[in-house]
Amino acid sequence: MELLILAVPVVFGITSILLADRAVKRGCKKKKALYMQIASFCAVFLVCFLCPMVASAAETTEAATAAASGSGLGFIGAAIATGLSCIGGGIAVGYAAPAAIGATSEDSKNFGKSLIFVALGEGVALYGMLVSILILSKLG
User: Fold this and answer.
1) pLDDT confidence of 130, banded at 50, 70, 90?
2) Residues 26-58: b if buried by 16+ CB within 10 A, e if exposed
């Protein structure tokens, strides 16, 4: 039963991706499909965050509940740090890489300079991962 409850967000996520892809193929604008994808992700996140069915199954004392909620919030913080930094890094690389390719195609001497800007976008994701590792090391 617990595995089924944990699989619900994954199923909703995959379904929303398939529906967004189908909408784009039918002629919907990509920007609108992206906003719908973000809205469905937020809805699934809120349902999973506000309805902790798995946590209500176990009976614990108040001290254990307080410790569990503190570590749970730490896990959520680590996930948010990693997720948002990876999204930001992806956006940065998405804009920097085509510009770097264009600059390199015009003049091959610009390859080193343009590669630095692409690597800076990747660095944002690495910093988020390091922050989440620091958060997780405090929990353990």
Assistant:
1) very high
2) eeeeeeebeeebeebeeebeeebeeeeeeeeee
Cα dihedral 23, 25, 26, 27 sign: positive
Q: Look up the pTM and report it.
A: 0.54
Cα distances from 93 to residues 58, 74, 123, in angstroms, run 44, 28, 10
What are 73-100's pLDDT values in tens digits? 888 888 899 999 999 998 988 998 898 8
Give the residue carrying structure tokens 């630095």: 116
Give 60's DSSP letter: -
CA distance 130 to 123: 10
Q: Which residues contact 29 (CB under 8 A, 6 or more apart)?
A: none
Give the CA-trace dihedral at 121, 127, 129, 133, to 10 degrees.
170
